[in-house]
Design a protein that fits this description.
This protein is mainly alpha-helical. The chain has 2 domains: about 80 residues, no CATH class; about 90 residues, no CATH class. It contains 8 helices and 6 strands; from the N terminus they run ββααβααβααβααβ. The strands form 2 sheets. The protein has a 3-stranded mixed sheet. A 3-stranded parallel sheet has the order 4-5-6. Strand 1 and strand 2 form a beta hairpin.
């Protein structure tokens, strides 16, 4: 028997990939739709995302749900609650991808900065082929600490170099299924 994480079904993306359910992903999409419908900082987004989560965990019987079906279910909920204007703007982009800079440093091994930047460029290029709406790049401070042990006397120059590299490559990255530019968060 295979147990799904947290008892949640997998979400099947249009390209056939599977991903785990994330309430924050639904909440962010609801907030964006509400904003487009004229609601500023819409308070119901988190509650609706929680309701969807509870339904999938307790009452949904299949192991997988196509993202289009999930999107339609959320639109139905919005319509039932009287928020057809929000429902008309609601779309689920592919869930965010996460990239650890610290993992890239470790993978670079003895190649240090040169190998690190090569790996980072390759990962950013592979993401350009996907249709995610958001990329979360994390562990910048750990990355700086790991790379700082190697050669560089100052971390601020290296921080600026990494940020600049991500910005430069970020401009050439693709768009989501809704044809919106990729949002990059660096932490």
């Amino acid at each position: 028997m295979i147990a799904l994480r947290d008892g949640m079904p997998l979400i099947v993306l249009p390209d056939g990939r599977n991903t785990t359910f994330d309430k924050h992903w639904i909440t962010a999409s609801l907030l964006k739709a509400a904003d487009l419908a004229g609601y500023e900082r819409w308070w119901l987004a988190g509650h609706i995302a929680e309701s969807v989560s509870v339904y999938l965990q307790r009452d949904f019987e299949d192991n997988c749900v196509p993202v289009d079906n999930l999107e339609e279910a959320v639109r139905d909920i919005l319509g039932t609650l009287g928020f057809q204007d929000v429902a008309s703007h609601f779309h689920l982009p592919d869930p965010p991808l996460s990239l650890s800079l610290a993992d890239l440093v470790r993978e670079a091994g003895t190649g240090y900065e040169l190998a690190f930047f090569g790996l980072l460029g390759n990962r950013l290029q592979s993401i350009a082929g996907s249709h995610v709406a958001r990329l979360e790049i994390r562990d910048l401070s750990v990355c700086l600490r790991l790379l700082g042990r190697k050669k560089r006397p100052t971390k601020s120059g290296l921080r600026d170099e990494i940020v600049s590299f991500i910005r430069q490559h970020g401009q050439s990255l693709g768009t989501s299924r809704q044809e919106e530019p990729l949002e990059i968060q660096l932490s």
